[in-house]
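Note to self: user wants both folds in one dump. Writing first protein now.
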Amino acid sequence: MRGTTYMTAGLYRLRTTGTGTAIFWCEPDESGDVAVFEREEQYRAGHKPMIRVSPQWFTDILIERIETERAS
């Protein structure tokens, strides 16, 4: 995964300082950064992200993308 940046919205497992890893909802934003939310619902409700990170920093903390089935 190293060196690969996913710039699509979705669930990602990221490295954290507290627990080691956690799953977050990530969305690319208009500035080119990645907005990180605790849950997708927070993004949908218009809440501010927990943090915004550069694509390079996102790649450094990225462990994996979590694939989910979307209801059609």
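First done. Writing the second protein, which came from a different request thread.
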Amino acid sequence: MRSSKLFSIILVLLVSCVSKAEMETVTAATELPPIDLIWREGLHINAGLGVHGGVYLVEGSTREYALGLAVKTDVSYYLNDRWALETGSLIKFARVNELRIWGTEFGVGFRYRLPQGWYDEQVPYFRFFTGASVNVVYTDGQKLPEFEEAYSRIQFEGPMMGIAFGGMRLTENKNVWFWEVAATGEWMTRESGIQMEKDVPVVVARSALDGSSQLYTLYITMGGFIF
């Protein structure tokens, strides 16, 4: 009699635990954010701030490392609940060996929404983009060993390509915020020497590069949708 009563108590406890677990699973599933409130069709603009770290290679040999601030903006047109076309920019600021560096990457590409539920209350996505990059080194008249003359600034240009992974989240105020990790590669194909003439930058020298100089950068940014 006692054993059957004890068995009944244990059975009731097990049923209660299973029911509670099922309720928690259903609740967690229903708490996933509505996709149409985050991934909305139409034109949208987002902007974010973060940090970046990069390595500069010449013919496969490491020359310099750089760390600094980063700013990103994207103009996207969401076609449907999976795909979006976009254009955007990544701007980076750094200081290497007392030289100030300002780099800008312009790209076009696509954004693809990954299956929902990878992260609580977030919609994950993947991005691919390609375009061009411009890196300006402010020498302030200092002569660098790689150049025959001293310039006010030196500009490097070339193609670039990148990928990114991130997540989008809906706040209580119905605003969309995001985080993103991006990696880009740049291939330098042209350099220009610039002098300042009456506060106006003038290109005084220009030469082609063979692309053996590359810059690889990792970005970590956070921000929100402007609209």
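Dump finished. Worth passing along: Residues 9-15, 17-30 have pLDDT under 50 and may be disordered.
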